[in-house]
């Protein structure tokens, strides 16, 4: 690569930016594994902090995983048929509906949480159950599922596929099950990984919707940043990284794959 | 069962869910904002109360600075990575997109590790270089959040540019600098406007980062949060939420009319 002055500058900006993003992440990983962060690595490495995180926050990690799985189930049941219906009737109404359910992408989670709280806050049984948090997660992730599946469905020749199946005597439900869903699989997979990744990391809505007995992983993180020693907060962040980074990579792989189809 | 009915049934769960948990709550939020003694005058009160007005101004200014800086940095890095192949490029790209999955709270913590009281800068340069809890820290946190998103948009847009335009400019004797200014940037402009608008809107509504860092700083999400939880000023919290939600929504709608799709995940 020929290095000219502008190129050196570009490289410098790129490297500095990468350093800005990765250095604190490495610091956090190290702090979570160091005996005493203020004395530095020379104080020795330890798994003690990870052990304490497990004792303190195992419940919140489990709750986040449970929420991610149930959120995925709900977005699949609501989102995949809806994407199919939107693909079948591409009119003004469908566009408006798609736009409307995408509102949670544009409107900050805090505002949506306040709206939910004011409408359902007085329904005690619902307000204090994990289902209330689930509603927030579904609200936020559903548009990703619908759009991901819809993009794949719009790219393929849905009409002729369905017509051939119909000529062979397949009912609406059979066609949906054996033709539409298998063909939409790349979009469903990309949507599913996006839903799980976003649900595990969701904080803005969850912070407002949670109760002291129902803390998710990110809520626990905020809690540890405010009240625990730096090593424990870092170890907990490390646990989060270990969960979220593979998910992010899988999500990017699946999204690229689905986008190749829609191009 | 005819196919029409089946398609309608497919849409039913979505319709019920978004009616119950999106449409009605939003109606309730708007309604609640008018339920104080001021009635709908509460929106006027936002503009007449110095604290709220200052908060609005400060939030807009920080978000604007974040959008501009993220655009400058990410366009430079994005063009460089899209146009050059070298060993380590893949690793660099991974590092630059990794934070996509980090929620705002985690980013706040990472900024504390850089600029907090026991942060990297204060340790390396002992002279009280603590910036994490100031407007600078907030700015850096929002920037951290926006850089990967803007970068991906810029790189995707660069791939769609027609390389023959640049070749033509080069054959006509244009310098590399002129090619960037006259050919590449105008070609990228729609995507840059869209990406900038997303960065701006996300910074406006970012709660997680502000929650970790901005204990003393009045930015809109923090003020909404304290009005709601500490002051129990439900009407004002609702009114500010409506203003914030409308602002970000309209902004992203306009941005999308400039350039295809937008992704504004998180905050």
Q: How would you describe what is shown here?
A:
Chain A has a domain at 65-216 and 239-262: Orthogonal Bundle (MetI-like fold), CATH 1.10.3720.10. Chain A has 263 residues and is mainly α. Chain A is 82% helix and 0% strand. Chain A has 12 helices and no strands. Chain A starts with a helix and ends with a helix. Chain B is an all-alpha fold. Chain B has 2 domains: 1-33, no CATH class; 41-258, MetI-like fold (Orthogonal Bundle). Residues 262-267 of chain B have low confidence and may be disordered. At the A-B interface, helix 1, helix 2, helix 3, helix 4 and helix 5 of A face helix 1, helix 3, helix 4, helix 5 and helix 7 of B.
Mean pLDDT of chain A: 92
In CATH, what is the class of one domain in chain A?
Mainly Alpha
Compute the gyration radius of chain A: what is it?
23 Å
Strand content of chain A: under 5%
CATH class value of the largest domain in chain B = Mainly Alpha
Beta-strand percentage of chain B? Answer: under 5%
Features of the shown structure:
heterodimer, A: 263 residues, mainly alpha, MetI-like fold, 82% helix, B: 267 residues, 2 domains, 12 helices, 76% helix, globular, disordered C terminus
Layout of secondary structure:
The complex is a heterodimer of chains A (263) and B (267).
Chain A: H1 5-33, H2 48-88, H3 92-101, H4 103-106, H5 109-120, H6 124-127, H7 130-155, H8 158-167, H9 172-201, H10 204-209, H11 217-227, H12 230-262
Helix pairs in contact in A: 1-12, 2-7, 2-9, 2-11, 2-12, 7-9, 7-12, 8-9, 9-12, 11-12
Chain B: H1 3-33, H2 42-48, H3 50-83, H4 89-97, H5 104-115, H6 120-124, H7 135-160, H8 163-171, H9 176-205, H10 208-213, H11 220-229, H12 234-258
Helix pairs in contact in B: 1-12, 3-7, 3-9, 5-7, 7-9, 8-9, 9-12, 11-12
């Amino acid at each position: 690569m020929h290095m000219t002055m502008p190129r050196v500058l570009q490289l410098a900006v790129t490297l500095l930016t990468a350093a800005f993003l990765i250095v604190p992440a490495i610091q956090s990983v190290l702090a979570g594994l160091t005996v005493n962060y203020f004395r530095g690595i020379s104080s020795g490495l330890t798994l003690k902090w990870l052990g304490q995180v497990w004792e303190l926050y195992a419940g919140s990690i489990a709750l986040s995983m449970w929420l991610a799985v149930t959120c995925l189930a709900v977005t699949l049941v609501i989102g995949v048929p809806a994407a199919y219906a939107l693909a079948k009737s591409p009119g003004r109404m469908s566009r408006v509906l798609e736009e409307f359910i995408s509102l949670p992408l544009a409107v900050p989670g805090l505002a949506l949480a306040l709206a939910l709280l004011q409408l359902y806050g007085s329904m005690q049984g619902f307000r204090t159950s994990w289902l209330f948090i689930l509603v927030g997660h579904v609200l936020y992730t559903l548009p990703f599922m619908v759009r991901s599946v819809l993009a794949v469905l719009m790219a393929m020749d849905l009409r002729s596929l369905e017509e051939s199946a119909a000529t062979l005597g397949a009912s609406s439900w059979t066609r949906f099950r054996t033709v539409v869903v298998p063909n939409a699989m790349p979009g469903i997979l990309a949507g599913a990984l996006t839903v799980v990744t976003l649900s595990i990391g969701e904080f803005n809505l969850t912070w407002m919707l949670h109760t002291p007995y129902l803390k998710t992983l990110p809520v626990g993180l905020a809690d540890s940043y405010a009240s625990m020693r730096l090593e424990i907060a870092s170890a907990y962040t490390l646990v989060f990284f270990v969960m979220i980074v593979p998910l992010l990579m899988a999500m990017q792989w699946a999204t690229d794959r689905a986008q190749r189809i829609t191009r | 069962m005819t196919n029409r009915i089946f398609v309608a049934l497919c849409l039913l769960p979505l319709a019920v869910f978004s009616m119950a948990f999106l449409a009605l709550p939003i109606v309730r939020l708007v309604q609640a904002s008018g339920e104080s003694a001021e009635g709908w005058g509460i929106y006027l009160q936002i503009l007449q109360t110095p604290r709220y007005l200052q908060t609005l101004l400060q939030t807009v200014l920080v978000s604007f600075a974040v959008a501009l800086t993220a655009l400058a940095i990410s366009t430079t890095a994005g063009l460089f990575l899209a146009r050059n192949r070298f060993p380590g490029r893949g690793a660099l790209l991974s590092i630059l997109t990794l934070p996509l999955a980090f929620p705002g709270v985690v980013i706040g913590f990472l900024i504390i590790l850089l600029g907090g009281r026991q942060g990297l800068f204060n340790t390396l340069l002992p002279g009280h270089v603590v910036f994490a809890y100031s407007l600078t820290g907030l700015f850096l946190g929002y920037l951290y959040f926006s850089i990967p998103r803007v970068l991906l948009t810029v790189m995707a847009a660069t791939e769609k540019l027609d390389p023959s335009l640049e070749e033509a400019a080069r054959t006509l004797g244009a310098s590399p600098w002129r090619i960037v200014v006259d050919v590449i940037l105008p070609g990228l402009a729609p995507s840059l406007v869209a990406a900038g608008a997303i960065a701006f809107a996300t910074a406006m509504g970012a709660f997680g980062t502000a929650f970790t860092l901005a204990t003393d700083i009045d930015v809109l999400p923090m003020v909404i949060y304290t009005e709601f939880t500490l002051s129990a000023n439900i009407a004002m919290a609702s009114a500010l939420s409506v203003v914030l939600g409308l602002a970000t929504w309209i902004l992203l709608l306009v941005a999308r009319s400039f350039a295809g799709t937008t992704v504004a995940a998180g905050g």
